[in-house]
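Moderator note: this is an archived Q&A kept for reference. The question asked for a predicted structure of one protein chain; the sequence and the answer are reproduced below.
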Amino acid sequence: MKVIPGNSLDPNTAQTPGMNRATAINNARAGAEKIWAGTVTIHANAKTGAHHHGDLESIIYVLKGRARMRWGDNLEFVAEAGPGDFIYVPPYVPHQEINASRDETLECVLCRSGQDPVVVNLDIEPIEKPEEVLWKDPIHK
């Protein structure tokens, strides 16, 4: 058993322009072998390109703000989530993550079924093109 205080999360993890990640649970911090958990703060109006996370499952819990998710072979489906809502992202599902607000940050808790930062970028034209902040880094190319 391990309790990780909210004020001791580790920001020394892969970062992406437009968002800030902090690790709460992983192997090094808690001895976890099959999951990763942490927080994600997504800047106003930030949008990813189309991608999936391989065989990993992800659960996103929205703390503050408004998340818009697009998914499907052509990102043809859309749903929004607000504070208190959960989002489940199945393995291999193409999706785009969007902060639906131009003014407020989006704060979430993220849990993944593995510890590797798997991101498979896809050659799908995003319906909502990244505008002000493009998530583009070694993970989200």
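Archived answer notes: The chain has one domain: 10-134.
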